[in-house]
Amino acid sequence: MDLAYKIFLDPFVQMGTAPDLLMQTLWEGLVAGVLYSLIALGFVLIFKASGVFNFAQGIMVVFAALTLVGLYEHGVPAFLALAITVGVMFGLAFAVERLVLRPLVNQPEIILFMATFGLTYFLIGFGELVFGGEPKVMISDQLLLPSGAYRVNMFGGFVQMQKIDVAAAIIASLMVAALAVFFQKTRIGRALRAVADSHRAALSVGISLEYIWVIVWFAAGIVALATGIMWGARSNVSFALEIIALKALPVLILGGFTSIPGAIIGGIIIGVGEKLGEFYWGPLLGSGIETWLAYVIAMVFLLFRPQGLFGERIIERI
Amino acid sequence: MFYREVGQFKTSYAADQALFPILQDKIGILLILTIAFIVVPLVATGFVIDSIITPVLVLSLAAIGLNLLIGYTGLLSLGTGGFMGVGAYACYKLATFFSGVDIIILVICSGFFAAAVGTLFGLPSLRIKGFYLAVATLAAQFFLSWCFIRIPWLYNYNVSASIEVPTRTLFGIPVTGPTATPVTRYLIVLTIVTVMTWIASNLIRGRVGRTWMAVRDMDIAAELIGIRLLPTKLLAFAVSSFYCGVAGAMMAFFWLGNAESESFSINQSFLVLFMVIIGGLGSLLGSFLGAALIWGLPIVMRNAPVVLGIPVTAATMEHITSMTLGVLIIFFLIAEPNGLARLWQIGKQKLRVWPFPY
Amino acid sequence: MRAPTDPDVAAGEVLLSLENVSLSFGGVKAISDVSFDIRKSEIRAIIGPNGAGKTSMLNVINGFYHPQRGRITFKGETRAEMRPYRAAHGGIARTFQNVALFRGMTALDNIMAGRTLKMQRGFLWQMLRYGPAMAEEVEHRHRVEEIIDFLKIQEIRRVPVGRLPYGLQKRVELGRALAMEPELLLLDEPMAGMNLEEKEDMSRFILDVNDHYGTTIALIEHDMGVVMDLSDRVVVLDHGIKIADGTPDEVKSDQAVIDAYLGVAH
Lengths: 318, 358, 266
Fold this sequence. Notes:
Chain B is an all-alpha fold. Chain B has helices at 13-16, 23-43, 46-72, 80-97, 103-122, 130-150, 182-205, 207-217, 219-224, 229-256, 266-279, 284-308, 314-335, 339-353, and strands at 162-164, 169-170, 173-174, 258-260.
């Protein structure tokens, strides 16, 4: 009885009696959610256009951030370093298409998925080799990203919102809007969707797979860079980020693997859900439940709706 | 020339369906077993056994477990590390409670605990397919990892949150703990792995294996023949987790001598997954080959600079190993998606017609 | 292969009947209020232009699709819908338009898989293999070899089915269905993609199965010559509606059928 009280009543009471804390938690959840969404967005881009689940997206985030910071540490001015990093991500996209995707075209998706595992290990080793393994500080000031916090008084207390988080939310929204327009309205966007459906069919109507793939991996690389900058600004840039990228999976499950709005909404749901769970129910179970809570939420969700919130229902034709 | 099967006729279906129908294969396996059981303990140093041979055997068993799930039944699982951990911690608790019982029996029992947990996390597989199922197993993996730290009862409230393996004896000889010799531990692991591999091959060649493969290849058609999907998938999870659990228990008791949550983390899951992929999906031999390569390669690479006299730091070697592993995975997927086992088969084909080219 | 003996249904009696079955997917009506029956030991053809709902009909009988309305009576038991497992248990076997073989397995293994329902030996014996499990395996191997002889596919036993040419794949699939010792065999376009010789072979197999083992057969087929030669009775579907039902001769001269195939607007 006491346990039931603790699970079902107490947390809500806590929420009600300290609404400013609730707001703070919600805000933290929203911020985390935005970052999850950005990572998920990178996955969605590549999956939507090439049917490949790019396990290396997480390491691409780290790699992009490391390149940026590493260049700066070697004396390159901030914005030039940014431009060069963009170029590096393009180079990476080009190399991946040439060396990994092209030889594996038409192979079943599971093979391509496993190839991205290989890519991940390679980038981890390469990144550590070139940049060293210690955590680094993101050059947020030099990139003119705001620091400090807003303090909003409400509900008798206050809510603290880091300016960098607000900036992250705004930048993420802009990126999502741009990508959505790109996919729906442009010729290349249409070609991307065609390729996602069937490599062979797209080839047969003359769409150049190589060109499309380079573009889409480059776009994902840009998203990865933005994510790396945002995330690195909040906490340092280290290889631990790579595992956090796995968090994008529950987001993708909720939002569907091919939906951009789904990635955003899914990310926010997971981020908020996780923070609420951790803050209000966490003390009950012990700390650290955020390592698995998101996955369990996603799994439960899958049981009721196996294709996710926005995903397409696959009807098997016999 | 040596490998021709011409002239070897089978006069019964039983002989036709035997494990090693060709005489040369029979001789080959006998040779391998002789080397494993007799030659290695006499010749190899304790260091080599402890750092290479025993680990490869243990990981091969885990790879077989995962292969049964992914390669034969087509269910993608990323929870291998967690299931191995269940086996290890279960064995530890059993050893604590039943200190008089034979340790080998406890190891087998801990497999059942892992099987139970595996079956539980396999339940979603009725509704969830393919990739999404991998996420459910990830939930299992992260949850179990969390449990291994956050439930102190599992490691007997040890301050360091790790389990220290107690000394247990078999016929008066210490087989676990600090006093057990590498050879003793190796022989026990070898026996268990050999028996369980034989059982796995029996399952695969019979009705059970066919139902698994049917579910993997086309589950709709499998239903049509009268195969019930959920029991089949759950059986696959149960057996697979059993194998992983036993492997985990052996890892703690006969290889490392201790263990902690990190030994059974998501990284372990990925490691075993790569062994299965590179070794070859759907191949028992592949599980062994993959384990040998994935475990052996870093060791070779770590020691190569020393042997060759090239001055490279250990850390750098780690990074290069990681890169090499990544490149190797991609290379294998491009060149031979069916893994080392397929290369082996191709090799045997060539041997059949040797010295002729075709 | 033994002839299925069922004291419940004698030759000539109704084995399966569908009453007022309607099936739709979302807004698309695949089958509208169709009723017909299949009598034991007959060869029943289901024909009609493309998109008429023929495959959907078979899927309903099998239990893959569940009709929104109507009833299915099989061997005396009436249900609102069938389930694949129950259909298999009751003795319904099936082949598919796009061959649904297990591509990772050999031809022999595929047909052995068809014997799964008949294999009893439990998991523990399977682990051991030597002993009862092996004896059962050998016993079923005998049966399967009879089928292999019957279909003349001895040479390709050990070939992974993915490598076989289309015609042989269809034969292996037929073998797998026969391995279930079915009472009702559903064939979805068994002659599709075959040349004249292969069609004659397949027709011979179908007739033999029906003759020797008394297996009731329902087949979807586009080749009119085959339909007229093989079948005892024909049911014609068009746009999900039954437009004719009778012997091949009756159906051949039915005006509605001629219109449907010639595409007269109606």
